[in-house]
Specification:
mainly alpha, ABC transporter involved in vitamin B12 uptake, BtuC, two-stranded antiparallel sheet, 13 helices, globular
Length: 308
């Protein structure tokens, strides 16, 4: 394969995987605190439409990205309201949020269907971006992608190398014990749910501002649901989450490689590949009883109401 094509494929794979990576990181931080929010698809769609609309109206990508983060956090706060003070079932609340977000984004975005804008410009790093194969992929990307990598690094270090990360893990593993030790379980869970939703909103904004700078309904194509599965497959580990997301991104643009190699394969069939592989991996883990080895937080999805 031509080295220039390989460089382009690697560059495109990183761009394709970044929205999923941001969403999956949001899922990760929330679930490490024991918060199970299945509303990621709706939150991601709202982030996409909000980021696009604000950017189009103001001419500022930064404003669009910040608005998407704010909307994501607000939807996370709605989930918190339903599941913590009101004690609603978290699974039902998450599914309701997914449906609500999908419907609301269709309403908000109805006037923007088919509209496009100038995507976030690439910020190439001199000399490094000229390196063969990896130069374009690693050093000639947009600032939002670099911000995603910085967020992943910060989240990984915080979860695995700091006292706060240990406390967060304790809240997700056994909130009653954490409460007895003086940890304010409910505020921490609420904060992580909002932070996770904000990252998901940013992932949606990356789709509509950088990856495909236009608005179409259901443009997330199920990435919110895939992010939930990716975190399970990655065993709730930050590095593995990032790797799984970019593998998904690679298979998403696999049709480019197939076409260059002269393979006559339906693009629709190729677009199914990453979803089929994710489903196959989940089935394989389930059939082998390996989910118990994925280190899921012990209190994931369990309500806690002893704060006082």
């Amino acid at each position: 394969m031509d080295i220039h094509l390989a460089a382009d494929l690697l560059h495109a794979a990183l761009r394709a995987g970044t929205p999923l990576a941001l969403c999956a990181l949001g899922v990760l931080v929330a679930e490490r605190a024991g918060v199970l929010n299945l509303g990621q698809e709706g939150i991601m769609l709202m982030g996409a439409v909000t980021g696009f609309a604000i950017s189009l109206e103001t001419g500022s990508h930064a404003a669009g990205a910040l608005a998407a983060i704010a909307v994501g956090a607000l939807m996370g706060a709605l989930f918190v309201l339903l599941t913590l003070p009101l004690r609603a079932n978290p699974v039902a609340s998450g599914l309701a949020l997914a449906v609500f977000g999908s419907g609301l984004c269709a309403f908000v975005g109805s006037g923007y269907v088919g509209s496009s804008l100038q995507g976030i410009a690439v910020a190439a790093i001199p000399w490094l971006s000229e390196l063969p194969l990896v130069g374009k992929a690693l050093f000639a990307q947009d600032p939002l992608l670099y911000a995603a990598w910085a967020l992943a690094l910060g989240i990984g270090l915080t979860l695995h190398r700091t006292r706060f990360g240990l406390v967060l893990s304790a809240v997700g593993e056994d909130p009653e014990v954490a409460h007895r030790l003086g940890v304010r379980v409910l505020p921490m869970r609420a904060a992580m749910a909002c932070l996770g939703a904000a990252l998901t909103g940013l992932g949606g904004a990356y789709l509509s501002l950088a990856y495909t700078p236009l608005w179409t309904e259901d443009m997330t194509s199920g990435r919110g649901w895939i992010a939930l599965a990716m975190v399970v497959l990655a065993g709730w580990r930050t590095g593995s989450v990032l790797l799984a997301s970019y593998l998904f991104g690679f298979f998403s643009i696999l049709n480019l490689l197939m076409q260059d190699m002269g393979w006559s394969v339906s693009p629709n069939l190729l677009s199914m590949t990453p979803y089929v592989l994710c489903l196959a991996a989940l089935i394989a883990l389930s059939s082998q009883g390996r989910f118990s080895d994925r280190r899921a937080p012990g209190a994931l999805g369990q309500n806690f109401h002893k704060e006082g």
